[in-house]
Amino acid sequence: MKLYLDFDGVILDTISVTYQMIEDQNLQTRDEILNFYRTLDWNNLLKISPVMNDSINCIRKLIKTNIYDISVLTHVNSKHEEEEKIKMINRQFPDLEIIPCPKVIDKCDFVDPTGAILVDDYLPNLEKWEEKGGISVKFSDKNKKNDRFITITRLDQLLDIKFNSKDKRYIKA
Ligand SMILES: [Mg+2]
């Protein structure tokens, strides 16, 4: 079964780190913040960002069990961000595919979501994914329950769920 994993907020906590940087530098205007993201050193950011809830080890576990055909599907704003994310994933998992999706395009329009699982922390991605025939799983590091989507706090919880791609039901084992 095809499984797509989001990167920011699911594998690494890049989001909290960049928010903290913006706060530390006291950036406030839209231009300041846009410029911050434009000049962000992704090599450094990926080095200093904490792993979300043991995700690296969880992915290793998922790969070993061979239940899912896994790809990382991540939104990117620049070529630099894309290159650094590819390097990082290749370093950790040499055989894992990473698909950089330009930020302006929805993930569900960049790959075929039919019958495929998307694990993401961003609700609009999950909503659109499901509308286009995919199976959406909400990742929440703080276990904030969601009414619409099944929620996981660790990626290895995917091993406890049986997905049925035909009618999109899932059964917790
Ligand atoms: Mg995300």
Structure description:
This protein has 173 residues and is an alpha/beta fold. The protein has 2 domains: 134 residues, HAD superfamily/HAD-like (Rossmann fold, 3-Layer(aba) Sandwich); 34 residues, no CATH class. It is built from 7 helices and 8 strands; from the N terminus they run E-H-H-H-H-E-H-E-H-E-H-E-E-E-E. The strands form 2 sheets. A 6-stranded parallel beta sheet has the order 3-2-1-4-5-6, with helices on both faces. Strand 2, helix 5 and strand 3 form a beta-alpha-beta unit. The two termini are 17 Å apart. Bound molecules: magnesium ion (MG). Magnesium ion (MG) binds next to loops.
Key structural traits:
173 residues, alpha/beta, Rossmann fold, 2 domains, 6-stranded parallel β-sheet, two-stranded antiparallel ribbon, 21% strand, globular, binds magnesium ion
Supply the helix-strand structural class.
Answer: alpha/beta
* CATH topology title of the largest domain: Rossmann fold
Shape: globular
Helices and strands, in order, run as EHHHHEHEHEHEEEE
Tell me the strand percentage band. Answer: 15-25%
Q: How many strands in all?
A: 8
The overall pLDDT average reads: 93
List the helices and strands and how they pair.
Elements: E1 2-5, H1 14-24, H2 30-38, H3 42-48, H4 55-65, E2 69-76, H5 79-92, E3 97-102, H6 107-110, E4 117-120, H7 123-131, E5 135-139, E6 150-152, E7 161-163, E8 170-172
Parallel strand pairs: 1-2, 1-4, 2-3, 4-5, 5-6
Antiparallel strand pairs: 7-8
The protein binds magnesium ion.
Brief synopsis:
The protein is α/β, with parallel strands linked by helices and 173 residues long. It is built from 7 helices and 8 strands. Strand 4 (117-120), helix 7 (123-131) and strand 5 form a beta-alpha-beta unit.
